[in-house]
Amino acid sequence: MKKNYIFFVIFTMLSVISCSTNQNYQSKQSVKDYSSGKALPKMVAVYQKNQLPHAAYRVIGTANISKHNLLGFERDETTINNMMKKFAASIGGDALIDIKNNRDVVEAQVIQFQKVMI
Hints:
By secondary structure, the chain is an alpha+beta fold. It has two helices and four strands. It has a domain at 41-113: 2-Layer Sandwich (Dodecin subunit-like), CATH 3.30.1660.30. 27% of the residues lie in helices and 24% in strands. The protein has a four-stranded mixed sheet with strand order 1-3-4-2, covered by helices on one side. A hairpin with a 3-residue loop joins strand 3 and strand 4 (105-113).
């Protein structure tokens, strides 16, 4: 009985070891996306209500920034502006238009200027 137990344990261990897979590591290279033209937040233009850009553009998203932080404290206007610019730059936006100042959020359209091919 004891021999059978030892044989069974050795057989089980060898089976588990032989069935285990080797970890294959794939090399990952980070490639920067230069074609998307991601802008810096300080380069994002802000057009007020009565202003519109004079170049062709397309709307690529909407930025909604809450006027209050997670703790419920009200954010100041410069912080909200910086957050909107940072979001617009992160999705490849060039400017913010149609800014709406609601009760709880500030909302704006994120636009990207069209490249005119001549």
